[in-house]
Each structure stands twice: as structure tokens, then as C-alpha cells.
Amino acid sequence: MVNKEQIMDKLNQVIDPELGMGIVDLGLIYEVDIKEKHKDEKKNDAQQQVFIKMTFTTPACPMINDILNEIQAKLNEIDGLDIELSIVFEPLWNPSMMSEKAKIKLGMI
């Protein structure tokens, strides 16, 4: 069974092409929730539901589709997941949401 840390690791492998770092370190992932699904022996259904709430640095981000496609590809590397991705813009993203590692890389600290 997958855990939140594994999901976050996969998500951070998704690199924002404009900033050159992972979307987790950029603070774009607001929430990850994993729920067990009832298993149907007759169907080869996903065993876990993964709910992800995320944002982008701006609603007009030109890379939204590319990043979303990469998220799907990375999470599809884990078998047995039913993924629901919600994009929100509240709260608005701001640089304080970045990890210390990201801030250092961008010369903010």
C-alpha cells in the first residue's frame, strides 16, 4: 500500500520547467489524502484513492497542462491508485510556501 511520503516523492519528481525544481519544494502541493477503496474481486479496480489539492504560481501559468500530464505519468508508476487532482487558487501561492531548499536554490535566503 502506498503512503503519503511515496506520493510526495513522486510529485516532487515533477519539475517546474521554468524554475527547474520539484513542485513539492515549490509549495504547489497543498494536500494529499489517501483512502482505502473496497476491493471488488471481479474487477481489477484501484485499491486506493489519492486526493491531491494543488495550485500553480499563477492561474495563467503557461505550463499547467505539461505539469498536469507529468503528475499523471509519475503517479501512474504506482499500481493500484485512483487519482483525483483538484487545482485551487485559494490560498494564492506565494514564495513563503517554498521549502528552504527551494528558497536557497533561488537565492532567497
Distance between the termini: 38 Å
* Largest sheet, strands/sense/barrel: 3 strands, mixed
Which series of helices and strands comes N to C? HEEEEHEH
The appropriate CATH architecture is 2-Layer Sandwich
Q: State the name of the first-level CATH class.
A: Alpha Beta
Proportion of residues in extended strands: 15-25%
Which structural class matches the secondary elements?
alpha+beta
Query: Share of helix among residues?
Result: 10-25%
Number of domains: 1
Gross geometry? elongated
Strand order of the largest sheet: 3-4-5
| Strand elements, count | 5
What's the helix count?
Answer: 3
Q: CATH topology, which one?
A: GMP Synthetase, Chain A, domain 3
Q: What does the radius of gyration come to?
A: 15 Å
Q: Give the low-pLDDT segments.
A: none
Write down the overall mean pLDDT.
92
The CATH superfamily title: Fe-S cluster assembly (FSCA)
Brief sketch in words of this structure:
The chain has helices at 4-12, 64-75, 100-105; strands spanning 15-16, 21-22, 29-36, 48-54, 81-87. It has 109 residues and is of the alpha+beta class.
Report on this model:
The chain has a single domain, classed as Fe-S cluster assembly (FSCA) (GMP Synthetase, Chain A, domain 3, 2-Layer Sandwich). The strands form 2 sheets. It has a 3-stranded mixed beta sheet with strand order 3-4-5, with helices on one face. The chain has a two-stranded antiparallel ribbon with strand order 1-2. It has 3 helices and 5 strands; from the N terminus they run αββββαβα. The chain has helices at residues 4-12, 64-75, 100-105; strands spanning 15-16, 21-22, 29-36, 48-54, 81-87. It is 25% helix and 24% strand.
